[in-house]
Fold:
Amino acid sequence: RDRLRAKLSYTNLGFALAPETFTIAQLRDSYAAALGHPVSATNLQRVLTRRGVIEPTPAAARPTSAGGRPATLYRYTARRLVVTNPFAAFRPPAG
Structure:
């Protein structure tokens, strides 16, 4: 598990935890489970998009009974292991 946590920080290994397309909330839940601490969906999206690891698709998730705008679906830009930032680390929230 420690190795998985480390690799999530500096590679695109999350592709192995996610379906072909996913919402940021689904991806956040996968990262939180693997890392063992809460993950901000907004920060996760920002970091992975800036690194070119994920990209939005033209599709949207199915509407839910809660209403609101359907979530954008994303996909990994590569479905193979790529080192994206060798000096990065996801850390638990301070506090």
Notes: The chain has a mean pLDDT of 89.
